[in-house]
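Example 3.2
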Amino acid sequence: MSNVNPGVAFYRYVFKITGDKMRNPSSTFKINPTQTIQWLMLICIFISVQNVYHMYYVLFASFVLFLLLPNLKIRINASSICLLLLGVAMLIFDTLSQSSLMAMLRQFVWFCAYTLGLCFISANNTYEQKENRVKLVLGVLGTGTFLHYILNMIINFGSETRRARDFWSGEYTSATAQACLACIALSIFIAVIFTDAKRVWKILSIVGMAIIMIYNVGVLAGRTLLFITPFLFVFAFIHQSYNKRINPFRKLFVIAFIILVIIALYYLNVFGIKDAFEESNFYYRFFEVEGRSVFADTRVSKKLRYLHYMLNFPWGGSKLKEVVPGYAHDLYLDTYNLGGVFALIGVGVYSFLALFRAFRVFRNKKISFGVKQVLLCIYLSTNVMFFLEPILQGVPWLFASYCIIDGLATCLLTSARSEQHKERYKNRISIRKPDTENIKIGKGEKNED
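Structure, written as tokens:
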């Protein structure tokens, strides 16, 4: 009879299976600090698009986590300098930014957001892993904003006013501010429809887009998303046709057929569609009492008046707003009103560099079509939104999200260019390498010449 302790026997059996892992049990539960911090940063970004009124605190917390990363390297480029210039100009010339310490720190959240976007891609990852990391961050931003949009829809559905309550804060916000929550998600949905994604993802994207439109038309009665949506559809369709070299007429026929079916269902009042639409805030705004003034939009006239008086107030300080009451509903003019000419230079040059990066994404052959389509749709929709809303005052989280996404695109372009250089170098080496398989080595070989 064996005198071996059963516990020892069991340990030997497990050790035989697992090998050296049982020799050092702590190695089995090894934690990667870099990945842990990056996951915490993603959670902070998700929370920031839920609690948009306290976005600054959450993004600063995420930036503090970023500073804790091992082997930290803060990348500074022209875009970073422009965002720092924007922050300094707003701090000096915008009197409201000097009211408290947090108000002063807020002006640098754009720089922090762009830097966070640069840090999510590790140099040690393969290129495929880097693209997956970009998809992950875009998914977090899109899911977070879409969830916030749905929660707002749930508590406001059936409201008779366009001013709706925010789910998390309980405060009443404008329809356009709530519509901005759908900007990133809508871009992702439309991009996915015109990619090689699986059918289930395309169906979910269509459902998500329908939910966005139901709340936007039925309650918010918003024009912004109605303007952006066909714009994105046309771009995504043309981009796919150009990239895949496909004949667009078949899809155009299908789209035209779907539109005709929708029109027929509306006029036949199937499922009460017509009655529901004509009782909505959107129908009231466009075709009833408010319909007379809809197309006499004051935004264009406000922009023109801002442009007329802007040279009189080069240092900002909200002086322009005193002459022309109200916002210009324009990122650049409203920023000029607050921070003056230096703030305008900062945000203007940064936007130009970001759009140039979008063009480089479009031209780059290494970036997969799916990632490229999503990035370009987000670039397009957010830049259109920049000309329609007072971004830094009304929806600052949108500009912060744009900076994060632009930082991701910056890092991805650098990685793609590096991969392309490696591939060219390998091809060059393979061409120069002699064909040793056809060389005969042996004694007695004579030169036939």
